[in-house]
Write a structure and sequence with these properties.
mainly alpha, 6 helices, elongated
């Protein structure tokens, strides 16, 4: 068993899911939105961050980067190199543990095995997106459209992976209920 599989096997349980869920909510509902608010304040207007968008055209990405202003770009770059390194680890472990728990420990049947590795694709795509964002923020006002296209592509992969992860969880929970109903 791989190191990751071994770790997930050791920690998979209700308590771990609860702790990761709380961390997921703290980052998703408090920490990351507070950074977005701070970037908006530095920009002098409400702005969105690139990470929360999907499939943006490169011109739109650079328009957003311009809107942040110098201080907003500096803060956004710092967020990408700090909090947005930690958050993907948290949500990847959260989704991986849930998938492992559903499909490996509770025995929900699915045509593919080791589904708990799938969230790592989302994390990888997020990190790739973050690297491109950091480069674009750092190089601005120089505009390298290739970076923006690659960033947009990584973003699409990240959001599609999220959707698939959520569908796998919904499917697993639904099948768990079906299995319990059949046993009655």
């Amino acid at each position: 068993m791989s190191l990751i599989a071994s770790l997930i096997d050791k920690i998979a349980g209700y308590r771990t899911i609860a702790v990761l869920f709380v961390l997921f909510l703290v980052f998703g509902l408090y920490i990351m939105p507070s950074f977005q608010k701070a970037i908006s304040e530095l920009a002098g207007k409400k702005v969105s961050i690139i990470d929360l968008q999907s499939g943006l055209h490169p011109e739109d990405i650079y328009e957003m980067i311009e809107d942040y202003g110098a201080e907003g770009r500096r803060l956004y770059r710092w967020v990408e190199m700090s909090a947005d390194i930690i958050y993907p680890i948290i949500y990847t472990m959260f989704f991986s543990v849930i998938l492992y728990f559903l499909y490996e420990k509770l025995g929900v049947v699915f045509p593919f095995s080791r589904l708990y590795f799938f969230p790592f694709l989302m994390m990888f795509a997020d990190y790739v997106e973050n690297v491109f964002i950091i480069f674009m923020l750092s190089l601005y006002p120089v505009k390298l459209m290739a970076l923006a296209y690659l960033c947009s592509a990584a973003s699409v992969v990240k959001w599609i992976s999220l959707a698939i992860n959520l569908l796998l969880i919904v499917y697993g929970v639904a099948m768990l209920f079906v299995q319990k109903l059949v046993k009655r």
